[in-house]
Design goal:
By secondary structure, the chain is of the alpha/beta class. The protein is built from 14 helices and 12 strands. It is 39% helix and 21% strand. The longest helix is centred in the C-terminal third of the chain and has 19 residues.
């Protein structure tokens, strides 16, 4: 009978469900999780290290990301939010929905880093990218862009939903100040469309719908490395370029999940950072195991870095967006 008893125990064990793996839920933006983005590589590398399951939940762009977290509030399922930038960090902190991460090493971005809640994973400079086959004389300044030929269109993003869109808003404000509304009124005639996120506008650009698009100084590296073409280039602007530093943070709920802190530490190392240059097409903010492709040395190097503090953006974002909307909706 002993053999029968052991057989029954063995069958019972087989019938039990396998122990569920620990899970980490990361909210981010759509281009990060796209099959050509860094998400699939990051997921595979971190899951191999942690023996856990990573679930990415994506929205159109970074501003929409913060809006979703604020809407969900304390009930958010996110452990980590990845894809905000420094223009949103003060507002994000003010929600009380994020938890300090503690000391972080091995990050390097222009101007240094000392934030106790958010950790950078990449950075880049906003730029007007143009098609050299359609535009022989690209703008050489923001003023050139604003005052240029209305027949030469540009696709831009909405500052209410998109971090690049917000970046252009702040770029215009940093150059034009109190006269930004007048500048937007002039530029409006050159705007082909305003898309919710970066992917839509860049897709229109590469399909030939507009000769210019708001993107990054690093965008041409994709075309040079992946497509072996110099056709698409970034215009160098004499006033300088606005800096974007993209960050991740642990939510208050996520602080209870040990995987959150492990992911943030992983994010600053080669397992994550090696994926950034040639999938997110930005500069890595942490250590990589390999040097950047030589194409990155051929990119526009801004003559000046433009950037508002997170606190200044938080104080003025609504008013500046309302000013933009007042002009663009007429």
């Amino acid at each position: 009978m002993r053999w029968l008893f052991l057989t029954i125990l063995s069958l019972a064990a087989l019938a039990l469900p396998a122990t569920a793996k620990e899970k980490l839920t990361v909210y981010t933006y759509e281009s990060f999780t796209a099959e050509w983005g860094p998400g699939p590589l990051v997921k595979k590398a971190f899951e191999a290290e942690c023996g856990c399951d990573v679930e990415f939940v994506s929205v159109a762009d970074g501003v929409a990301l913060l809006s979703r977290v604020k809407l969900e509030g304390k009930a958010t399922k996110a452990d980590v939010v990845l894809g905000l930038d420094t223009n949103l960090t003060a507002e994000a902190k003010a929600t009380g929905l994020f938890s300090p991460h503690g000391p972080v090493e091995n990050v390097e971005v222009p101007g240094g880093w000392s934030d106790d809640t958010f950790v950078p994973f990449d950075y880049g400079y906003f730029a007007v990218v143009y098609d050299t086959e359609k535009l022989k004389n690209p703008p050489t300044s923001l003023k050139d862009l604003v005052d240029g030929d209305p027949a030469q269109k540009i696709a831009i993003q909405d500052p209410r939903t998109s971090t690049p869109g917000l970046g252009l808003l702040l770029w215009m404000k940093s150059v034009y100040g109190d006269k930004a509304a007048d500048a937007w009124a002039k530029l409006k005639g050159r705007v082909l469309t305003v898309t919710p996120g970066w992917s839509e506008s860049y897709g229109l650009f590469t399909k030939g719908e507009a000769p210019m698009v708001l993107s990054y100084t690093t965008s041409p590296a994709y075309h040079m490395v992946a497509e072996k073409t110099d056709r698409y280039q970034a215009a160098s602007f004499s006033e300088g370029h606005y800096l974007q530093i993209e960050v991740a943070g642990i939510t208050a709920n996520g602080a209870k999940n040990p995987l959150s802190q492990k992911f943030i530490a992983f994010m600053t190392g080669p397992g994550f950072q090696d994926a950034i240059p040639e999938t997110n097409w930005m500069f890595p903010a942490g250590k990589t195991d390999k040097p950047l492709d030589p194409a990155f040395d051929r990119l526009v190097k801004p003559v000046k870095t433009l950037m508002f503090s997170p606190e200044e953006v938080a104080r003025n974002r609504k008013a500046w967006v309302d000013e933009w909307l007042g002009v663009m909706s007429k």
